[in-house]
Design a protein that fits this description.
alpha+beta; elongated; 41% strand; 1 helix
């Protein structure tokens, strides 16, 4: 019985060693391709006034910026669009 357990443990260790050598389960390296978010978008936040923040969303595929105002007044929170901008000229 002891020999069977030792044989199983040796096999498991050999398997783990092979997985370590071959890099099984290691994540593949990804190069930065302009965005860390899906669909090539970037989101940023900024403060406008004391209780008002802004959320900026840039779509790198279409080169457009959208800005939203996020307001907090007590327990009430609201978000409204501030506008959009075509960044084609700004990014060249």
């Amino acid at each position: 019985m002891k020999k069977a357990i030792i044989a199983v443990l040796v096999c498991v260790n050999v398997g783990l060693l092979m997985a370590l050598i071959l890099g099984v389960g290691a994540p593949k390296a990804n190069a930065y391709q302009g965005s860390l978010m899906p669909n090539n978008t970037i989101m940023m936040t900024g403060q406008i006034r004391e209780n008002e923040d802004a959320i900026y969303i840039i779509d790198m595929a279409t080169e457009k910026l959208a800005a939203f105002e996020f307001q907090r007044k007590g327990n009430v929170r609201s978000m409204r669009p501030m506008g959009t901008r075509d960044l084609t000229l700004d990014l060249k």
